[in-house]
């Protein structure tokens, strides 16, 4: 029967199952017949390969079939992280047709996610462009139809999860007109992640720091970042998460560290061989004040001389080399100094105010000087993380906290509006899980890996030769630390593209 005749006959039948079935069968059959002629080059390629396979010798054919598989297995074993994107595409190309494409239109209709281009037209589903396999399940990249918005999918996420027999479906919008659906079939964040080796973080614009809910590594850029705040209850994995991040950065010779531990314990003792300055004394406020003042002098010297000496006023527009290292200042348990009202001694309180002012100055003024100040606390409040400092930080991480107020003090006043993702919902059984903002400003849950202290200490010892005394970054005659902000160059110039 001619396909057109079948289509005509089907249209005359009652609009029931039989009519739709005949119409669909006729359409698919005719599309199958036309496919080789519409894809002539691909058809000829397939025919050529088939002929070669037919006449090829048996061992040669076996080697050609086995070699790609063997290469993939070896690559995956030796370097799974670099093989992951290829694995994602290969499995996605298989799982896409098998699990999603054949029922995509019907699925969207059932969940109310179709649109009519015109009143007389048929309902059209958003376009499923590609499928990628990820450790947590599958990632669907969907182009929206006119009149659709990402919130349409967010409202139907639970319906989609039930229809796809998934644990949950998470919706994000990577760019206007698109949504990305994470069809999660297992909670990868529930599993602990312990690293036995740590790769060097040599590219400061792409530093791996945690694993996302899809099971893929998250990266962040530290270019033009002057401040970071983080907080979480004791045992939430805060210090362990920082350890994994620093372990990679220690292997970069163009990075120097100033570590101040306000707990007065040994949590950071492993970094002592590598740190330019390491302070674990929570009672000697003068030493802390002097250390931060040294960092401010280095930053002040850079913003005054970079253009003349190196050709640009912004550190991030220049080569990042050991001679001009990136400075990472880590202040753990920052409430030791910022919560001044808890300090009874007058002299200590004055020093605490100086320390807080120096930290605020580093965060607010020295983005273009190649200095990042990271403030961490187990007691996040508006006092321990002053809002005038927090609001000038571009990276914020909230580990497990008990109250919304604590979460807001870390993430910002409006960060939790319109989202169900919150650090108050993190289980105490999952240390290392935290809430961070992605590069689009959306909150997401991640899990920081655990690096054993003996491994971190071994890395610090092996890279101790990269350590530099910060005083060598200053001229022989160091100008006094001026309190006036007007003395420093405006920090909003020459932002790296």
Secondary-structure map:
Layout: H1 3-12, H2 17-38, H3 40-55, H4 58-78, H5 80-100, H6 104-110, E1 127-134, E2 137-143, H7 150-155, H8 157-163, E3 168-172, E4 178-184, E5 207-212, E6 217-220, E7 227-231, H9 238-249, E8 255-261, E9 277-279, H10 285-310, E10 326-332, H11 335-338, H12 346-365, E11 371-377, H13 387-390, E12 395-398, H14 404-411, E13 433-437, E14 443-447, H15 453-462
Parallel strand pairs: 7-11, 7-12, 8-9, 8-10, 10-11
Antiparallel strand pairs: 1-2, 2-4, 3-4, 5-6, 5-14, 12-13, 13-14
Helix pairs in contact: 1-2, 4-5, 10-12
Description:
This protein has 497 residues and is of the alpha/beta class. It has two domains: 98-186, Threonyl-tRNA Synthetase, Chain A, domain 2, CATH 3.30.980; 207-473, 3-Layer(aba) Sandwich (Rossmann fold), CATH 3.40.50. It has 15 helices and 14 strands. The strands form two sheets. The chain has a ten-stranded mixed sheet, with helices on one face.
Brief rundown of the structure:
The chain crosses the membrane at residues 37-55. The protein is of the alpha/beta class and 497 residues long.
Characteristics:
497 residues; 39% helix; 15 helices; Rossmann fold; disordered C terminus; single chain; Threonyl-tRNA Synthetase, Chain A, domain 2
Q: Kindly, what is the distance between the CA atoms of the first and last residues, rounded to a whole number of angstroms?
A: 63 Å
Mean pLDDT: 83
Instruction: Give the class-level CATH name of the largest domain.
Output: Alpha Beta
Could you list the spans in which at least 5 consecutive residues all have pLDDT below 50? Answer: 1-17, 482-490, 492-497
Instruction: Give the % helix.
Output: 25-40%
**Count of helices?**
15
- CATH architectural category of the largest domain: 3-Layer(aba) Sandwich
What's the quaternary structure here? single chain
Do you know the CATH topology of the largest domain? Rossmann fold
